[in-house]
Write a structure and sequence with these properties.
Layout (H helix, E strand, L loop, with lengths): L2 H7 E4 L8 E4 L4 H22 L2 E2 L2 E2 L20 H26 L15 E4 L17 H21 L7 E6 L8 H13 L5 E5 L6 H6 L7 H6 L4 H4 L1 E2 L5 E4 L8 H7 L12 E5 L8 H5 L5 E7 L5 H14 L4 E8 L6
Parallel strand pairs: 5-12, 6-10, 6-11, 7-9, 7-10, 11-12
Antiparallel strand pairs: 1-2, 3-4, 8-9
Helix pairs in contact: 4-5
């Protein structure tokens, strides 16, 4: 056994008001700790006997082992199980603090009452997989989502009764505040079905020429549509198509164009509105990055801003609505989506 190891593993203490010397040894095994402690004590007795001064041939100082080391039954300290539990609890505490700090910095709206504006409608949590054309199958509870869209339709009808139009269809532009808030097409489809359910003649218009989600969804890709009407080569009635949704026609995106912004700003948008429809719903792009939705608002009588919970903060939404009211014609109403059922009931 090497001396450097002994120096690090042995501790000697003198209890207060005693002439005792307590020797403690740390070792890899209980057996090694016992043997080392006893060996050190025995060695110390011999050292004292040989080095202590003598008087009348008798040592003036004598050392005696009064209690030999006993093999420990377990390692000292808290032990591995306790340390593991403390480690888990410590990790949970640190994780909880980190989550709290992130939530404190995350100002995204998670409940409708925090929007800063009164929403015109609330729609429940969508399940994954995108929109569906087989009825209201956009939610974990399709029947409930159907009622939500009916409620939204009734809210819009109430607004329209207070602001009647002289003639022509209601033209509702559906947009969103950012690319993170992308339930626009789902809302457009569900709301079209809700209006058609009452016997209204509904035309859906795919105004998002960049992604053409609505066109792909309802199966009119590559056929004449929006862009052809804007160029003046076709009429909405001639190129709109019946869909699998009863009572709903679709004006798809149409043939491709190289510059969407130029096509929108240079063409005639008046022809997009089918005069034989009662309600026209334009599925427009998000309004914070591109001007497409702003341009399309010139033919709309109403605007619906779709805000999924957990995507924007109240301040961001307020800024978008302020910018919208400054550059677009109809003021925007807000509908909240991905709302927890408890916040609706």
């Amino acid at each position: 056994m090497r001396e450097p190891w002994l120096a690090k593993s042995i501790t000697a203490t003198v209890p207060t008001s005693t002439v005792l010397l307590d020797i403690t040894v740390e070792a890899d095994t209980p057996e090694a700790a016992e043997l080392t402690a006893n060996a050190v004590a025995d060695r110390m007795v011999k050292v004292v006997d040989t080095t202590a001064p003598k008087a009348a041939n008798q040592p003036a100082l004598k050392a005696t082992v009064i209690s030999r080391a006993v093999r420990p039954g377990a390692a000292s300290g808290l032990g591995l199980p306790v340390l593991l539990v403390l480690g888990v609890l410590g990790g949970l505490a640190v994780g909880s603090l980190a989550v709290w700090a992130l939530m404190a910095r995350d100002r995204r709206v998670r409940q409708p009452q925090d929007l800063g504006v009164e929403p015109v409608g609330l729609l429940r949590v969508y399940r994954s997989g995108g929109p569906s054309t087989q009825g209201w199958k956009l939610s974990a509870d399709p029947a409930s989502l159907g009622e939500d869209f009916r409620g939204l339709r009734e809210s819009l009808e109430g607004v329209w009764r207070d602001i009647p139009m002289a003639e022509g269809p209601r033209v509702l532009l559906v947009t969103s505040p950012s690319h993170h808030a992308d339930d626009r097409t789902d809302v457009s489809v569900g709301l079209a079905q809700a209006f058609a359910e009452t016997g209204s003649r509904v035309t859906l218009v795919d105004g998002d020429l960049r992604s053409q989600t609505l066109t792909a969804l309802l199966g009119t890709a590559g056929q004449p549509g929006f862009t052809d009407v804007v160029k003046g080569t076709s009429s909405t009635r001639s190129v709109s198509r019946d869909t699998r949704l009863p009572g709903v026609r679709l004006l798809g995106a149409g043939t491709g164009v190289s510059n969407v912004g130029e096509a929108l700003s240079s063409g005639s948008l008046d022809g997009l509105v089918d005069p034989e429809s009662d309600v026209v719903i334009i599925d427009a792009p998000q309004c914070s990055k591109v001007s497409d939705a702003t341009i399309l608002s010139s033919v709309a009588t109403d605007c619906l801003m779709v805000v999924p919970m957990g995507t924007v903060s109240a301040d961001e939404l307020a800024a978008v609505l302020d910018r919208w009211s400054a550059v677009a014609r109809p003021p925007s109403m807000v509908v909240a989506t991905k709302v927890a059922p408890a916040d609706i009931l």
